[in-house]
Specification:
Structural class of chain A: alpha+beta
Order of helices and strands of chain B: EEEEHEEHEHHHEHEHEEH
Number of helices of chain A: 25
Number of helices of chain B: 8
Shape of chain B: globular
Largest sheet of chain B: 6 strands, mixed
Number of strands of chain B: 11
Structural class of chain B: alpha/beta
Oligomer: heterodimer
Distance between the termini of chain B: 31 Å
Helix content of chain A: 40-55%
Number of strands of chain A: 21
Largest sheet of chain A: 7 strands, mixed
Strand content of chain B: 25-35%
Largest interface: A-B, 39 and 44 residues
Strand order of the largest sheet of chain B: 7-8-9-4-10-11
Helix content of chain B: 25-40%
Chain lengths: 813, 257
């Protein structure tokens, strides 16, 4: 034991620079992995806990109040699978946001609104003023105050003190935003309805206004129909819980949704009914994508650490050949020598992984408030989850296994060879057929060095390959999302430059368009219709456009040309086993069956891949609004998009309140989220490039350190022959450049060819099954060359130790 | 009148270890001339190798100066020193010190490629000629690990002269060779000297020293004596060698060798 301790300590001391690098890489790996896993686990745990705290049901439904009457509730309660049901009122009211200074917030939410009363609705928890923790109690808001979901901080970007204006007919009621709350059910920006909490008295007051307005205008049949968000009417929210028996039998919210749809007539047509797992899926959408990218990054770090471990073990054996032979001659068994190396590497890796685990755990709490804007739950950090620790244990075992494998070559060392200095173990293949020509000497010597000891460079090529593949992938994603409307196109969304809603029957749309064209010619104009339809109990989105050429992302088939054709989201098609040419049967708002021919499949984030695109008239027929007046809103794309603000101002000046110019397009309020995603990937691209450069420097410095030791003799000879240290550094730099370039080229090619498929698999979880990463050859080539040059610079810088090689060492021998 | 190539002025070299100063060379004044084959002899620890490496600029003196063709080389920058080694100096070490991943031919040619104003093709021709002259033509494309010690050292000799240096410094060039290979290498050096190559060789072997036309005896860091000899006849018979050996030994005996 004492001998082993002595040898391990000596080994660690001798290779301290390499071990320091391995420690650092392992620490970074563990930090990234534990951060990702902890973040994912914390957010999921909080989502689950928050749903439990507010006593959210296994099934959530929202509908026009008249649709969920006592009879329906009794029918649901009678089902053996249903336990408790909680019903509360909500008001659908159009809203506007204003800053504290009275300026309208640019992008108002186009999703529906559910104004609920404090005490009647679920008991949401308020965030503290600094947004870093949850308040212990949530007081009833004042009569002029409103609590809004925390996700509204990101989209549309409101702050405490801003105003929320509720519009009911000609009446407007203004509330001040007094706090942000967690809404694990509907809070995520990806859902079509937002909930706002007001005091009971304020709710009653607005309710009276709604009732007065409803006396004049009939409430829509479907709260998710496109026109419904412009109307004020009473709704009801229902949270249905599984009975204890049903839960024990293993039923889930999704099962209950299906049972409700089969057993209850209302539920069979309800458009706003969701299993709690479905809502959790929407809330965690960005977390899953971010977690996947971070996870890949962490594994990339680990791969590099492993490559360097492998390389270091090999060169360490090569360098210590004589020492190992001597130890064998002294009677140490091969197993003990292998054990010694495994202990050294596994020990350092363990220390690095432990340090990284601690670092990751420290960082997670700082990131959680950011994710609250996307998930609408504020997680608090618990201890690192067992999954993170298990994952790190697996990585440690992998390191130990690789080291054990690499040390197998110790068996080939004989004491005799060791006493001869290990030279007989060095074999170079003669390259006499192609001797060095003399021109470009540094390059030729670099190539010779690589070809003479190819295995020494395999690790380096591997590092370059994975680093470049990852960078090309991240830049490819960033490139696809960069640019005006690029992100929308990639995610299968469309956006207008200007929305016009006629608020007065006296205004003619043709006249409004003439005014717009005074500022910029109109390139496209269209109308949108929207409806939710119940499929197997859960609400699924249907959108119709008067101009379907706006729809991107047809992966199979074509756009709908007739009212009975449907372009079906890939996830919906998968879940219903639909193919192009199949028939999709849907119950309309009037309860009558409509049959659509699947004319194509759609890759789009629309309803997370469960959305369907029909013709404009097709959706209006489905929603039961075909006979009504046309949609009051029109969307415009201008020839000069930058002129949109001017056009809006001109229209407002000319028509005043008779025309509403606020954005009403289906994806109008996703702008902030899209910006956020664009910024995230752009920042990630640069961050990854910086990390890759750092890793390249680290890897090169670790590898080159060993090489300099191994080649010290030859370097001394070169110096004695008149080679300057600069020439030798250049030779090293060229070696690393050539090897890295090959590795980078392989990685870049793999990423360029397979990146779109990979991202399609990842984003496909949310409906975007076709995501073409930007594989512009200039960019890919530039990144390949750029990273290879980083290796060159790193090698040139790291090879400065060549200067320490003294010619006198040759004499000392 | 011979032209001086290397001159020293009160050359001193000392090392400090554990606070103790050890003087290896003390005020050495000497001159190496063009065309000479100079052998520096002396007992172990006399400072022979240190003197050689100070003369060749591989080691810096503690005091005094080393002049190459009248110009000091003791404070040259790394770049200039590399230039000096590449263009004007050649080296043969006790070990061959060949670059392990270059063939014998390439080991000879590579320093030649550093020669200013010479085309690579000319270097290849010069390297080929030297390889031929050293009797290595058949093994030219072998790697050092595939060559014998004698072959390696002959290759090192060829490498040292491929650039046509002003002077070749040889540090115990036969020290690591067996009896069969020693005369072979010494003959090569004599042959080179015969064609005008200046050589400065450190040795403790009288058989080696008698090949020189000038022998310096170093003891305790100072030159204690100098012996001038006629140029060595490479075709000389056993009697010639014996007579020359006796002359050198008598001189060394007078110096208490």
């Amino acid at each position: 034991m004492a001998l082993m301790r002595t040898l391990v300590a000596a080994g660690l001391k001798r290779g301290r620079a390499s071990f320091a690098g391995i420690f650092l890489l392992m620490a970074l790996t563990a930090a990234a992995l534990s951060f990702t896993v902890s973040m994912y686990a914390d957010l999921n745990a909080r989502e689950e806990a928050a749903l439990a705290e507010i006593e959210a049901g296994d099934v959530y439904a929202v509908d026009v109040a008249a649709n969920i009457d006592g009879e329906v509730v009794a029918e649901i309660e009678a089902l053996p699978e249903v336990g408790e049901i909680r019903l509360n009122g909500a008001l659908s009211v159009p809203v506007r946001f204003y800053g504290a200074d009275g300026e309208a917030v640019g992008e108002n939410p186009t999703s529906g609104t559910a104004l609920v009363a404090w005490g009647d609705a679920l008991d949401f928890r308020l965030l503290s003023d600094d947004g870093m923790r949850l308040s212990d109690d949530t007081p009833e808001p004042g009569p002029d105050e409103v609590y809004v979901p925390v996700s509204l901080k990101a989209s549309p970007g409101v702050q405490e003190g801003d105003k929320l204006e509720v519009l009911v007919g000609d009446e407007a009621r203004c509330f001040t935003i007094a706090g942000f709350f967690e809404d694990p059910q509907l809070g995520t920006p990806f859902l079509e309805m937002k909930r706002f909490v007001v005091a009971q008295s304020a709710y009653d007051e607005v309710g009276s206004l709604v009732d007065e307005a409803a006396a004049l205008v009939e409430a829509p049949a479907d709260p998710f129909a496109s026109q419904a968000k412009f109307a004020a009417y009473r709704m009801a929210e229902m949270n249905a819980h599984l009975s204890d028996d049903a839960r024990e039998a293993g039923l889930t919210g999704a099962d209950l949704v299906r049972i409700l749809a089969e057993e209850v007539a209302w539920a069979n047509t309800a458009t706003g009914m969701f299993a709690s797992d479905t809502l959790v899926g929407y809330a965690m959408m960005v977390v899953v994508i971010g977690g996947a990218v971070m996870g890949v990054f962490a594994l990339l770090l680990f791969a590099i650490a492993l490559i360097i471990c492998t390389h270091t073990v090999s060169t360490s054996i090569e360098e210590g050949y004589a020492d190992y032979g001597t130890l064998k001659a002294l009677g140490l068994p091969n197993r003990a020598l292998r054990g010694m190396l495994v202990v050294e590497y596994a020990g350092v890796s363990l220390a690095g992984l432990a340090a990284g685990l601690a670092l990751g755990s420290v960082l997670v709490p700082f990131a959680l408030p950011f994710f609250a804007q996307l998930t609408c739950v504020l997680a608090s950090n618990a201890a690192p989850p067992p999954a993170a620790i298990a994952l790190l244990a697996v990585l440690l075992a992998l390191v130990a296994a690789v080291v054990a494998l690499k040390t197998a070559k110790l068996a080939r060392i004989s004491p005799l060879v060791a006493f001869r200095g290990g030279t007989s173990d060095v074999r170079f293949r003669s390259r006499g057929e192609r001797p060095l020509g003399g021109s470009h000497l540094s390059l030729q010597l670099a190539v010779r060095a690589i070809m003479s000891a190819k295995r020494r460079y395999v690790g380096l090529a591997g590092c370059a390959c994975v680093l470049c593949a990852f960078i090309v992938l991240v830049f490819g994603i960033g490139g696809t999302l960069r640019g005006e409307n690029s992100a929308q196109d990639a995610f299968g969304m469309w956006e207008s430059d200007l929305s016009i809603t006629l608020a007065s029957p006296d205004v003619d749309i043709a006249e409004v368009e003439r005014v717009i064209e005074e500022t910029s010619p109109i390139e496209k104009s269209w109308q949108e219709a929207f409806a939710m339809v119940n499929f197997g109990g859960e609400g699924r989105s249907f959108a119709g456009l008067s101009d379907l050429t706006l729809v991107q992302g047809v992966t199979e088939g074509r756009l709908p040309e007739h009212d009975n054709e449907a372009l079906v989201g890939v996830n919906l098609a998968k879940s219903m086993d639909l193919r192009v040419g199949d028939e999709l049967v849907v119950d309309g708002a009037d309860g009558k069956e409509r049959r659509f021919v699947v004319c194509g499949l759609l890759s789009a984030m629309f309803n997370a891949g469960y959305g369907t695109i029909l013709t404009y008239d097709g959706v209006r027929d489905l929603a039961g609004t075909a006979e009504d007046a046309a949609e009051p809103s029109r969307q415009y794309q201008l020839a000069d998009p930058d002129a949109a603000d001017d056009a809006r101002a001109v229209v407002e000046a000319r028509f005043g309140d008779a025309v509403d110019t606020r954005a009403t397009g289906m994806f109008a309020d996703t702008g902030s989220i899209i910006d956020l995603i664009q910024q995230l990937f752009a920042a990630m691209g640069y961050a990854m490039a910086a990390v890759a450069a750092t890793l390249a420097f680290l890897a090169v410095s670790l590898i080159i350190g060993r090489m300099l030791t191994a080649e010290r003799h030859d370097l001394g000879v070169y110096r004695a022959l008149g080679f300057t240290s600069r020439a030798l550094r250049l030779q090293f730099a060229l070696r690393f450049f050539l090897v890295a370039f090959v590795g980078c080229a392989l990685g870049a090619t793999a990423a360029a060819l397979g990146g779109s498929w990979l991202m399609g698999q990842l984003f496909g979880l949310f409906g975007v099954s076709r995501f073409a990463i930007d594989a512009n050859p200039l960019m890919v080539g530039g990144l390949t060359l750029g990273l290879a040059l980083v290796f060159l610079i790193a090698a040139y810088a790291s090879a400065r130790k060549v200067r320490r090689v003294d010619v006198r060492e040759l004499v000392a021998e | 009148m011979k032209e001086p190539i290397i001159q020293t002025e009160r050359l001193c070299k000392s090392y400090a270890a554990d606070g103790v100063q050890s003087h290896v060379l003390s005020n050495v004044d000497l001159t190496l001339y063009e065309g000479d084959f100079t052998a520096i002899m002396g007992p172990s620890g006399s400072g022979k190798s240190t003197l050689l490496y100070c003369l060749s600029g591989m080691d810096a003196p503690t005091a005094g100066d080393v002049l190459y063709r009248g110009k000091s080389i003791t404070s040259l920058r790394e770049q200039d020193m590399a230039e000096l080694r590449a263009q004007y100096f050649g080296f043969v070490f006790q070990q061959a010190h060949l670059v392990s991943n270059l063939t014998l031919f390439e080991n000879v040619a590579v320093p030649g490629y550093l020669k200013d104003g010479r085309a690579p093709a000319d270097t290849r021709a010069a390297a080929s000629a030297l390889i031929e002259r050293m009797g290595l033509a058949e093994d030219a494309h072998h790697l050092p690990s595939q060559a014998s010690g004698g072959q390696q050292q002959r290759c090192a000799v060829a490498r040292s002269v491929v650039n046509g240096p002003d002077i070749v410094f040889a540090d115990e060039p036969t020290g690591a060779l067996n009896r069969a290979n020693t005369p072979e290498v010494l003959s090569l050096l004599c042959e080179l000297n015969g064609s005008g190559q200046s050589i400065c060789m450190v040795t403790h072997d009288v058989l080696c020293a008698l090949r020189a036309n000038r022998v310096l005896y170093l003891e305790d860091g100072s030159i204690k004596g100098e012996l001038d000899l006629p140029a060595f006849r490479t075709q000389g018979d056993a009697a010639y060698l014996k007579a020359r050996d006796a002359q050198v030994n008598a001189w060394l005996s007078s110096l208490a060798w």
